[in-house]
User: What shape does this take?
Amino acid sequence: MLVVGIAGGSGAGKTTVARSIADKLGMENVAYISQDWYYLDQSHLPLEERKKMNMDHPNAFDNQLLIEHLAQMRAGAVIEVPTYLYGQYTRGTATNPLAPQAVVLLEGILVLATPELREVLDFKIFVDADADIRLIRRLKRDIEERGISFEDTINRYLATVRPAHEAFVEPSKRYADIIVPRGGENDIATLLLADLVEHYAVHKPNHRSNP
Assistant: This one.
């Protein structure tokens, strides 16, 4: 099993890159995991307090559970991945079963920012994009797909998303094996990357890049 970490800023195009890899390999050969699913449960806090929390800090995630789940998948076990309720800013009570596949795509803003998580990745990708493009994409996604208001999205971006990107996300680029410029709009890079992941999955199953 090859575990591929796909990091980058919010709205950089990580999901587009992951989808390109999955399309190349075939969905039946890929297990997709979003780091967002592993936000710590904050349901004990009032909604207004949850809205003010920094969800872009490495400590906002249950990295221990995520690492345990990846280890279980390497051992061939089906895991129960948590769910996250974006409009409520907390983890949901439901879980979803996820079976191990030849390639596991782990996507999230801080996938490369946590040393313990980097150590369990076989291949590390950083998806890069200009700040204005990332902001526009985040606004569109949060409003249209996640039911978050324009005001809440902008306030969170200014208070936590932009500072955390500069402090944690951008510096994690140095740990990437490959950097994809222009995000999901870089068709040539994503196609070449899909070919590379396919090569390692088939020919180098024990490949592990330096953490």
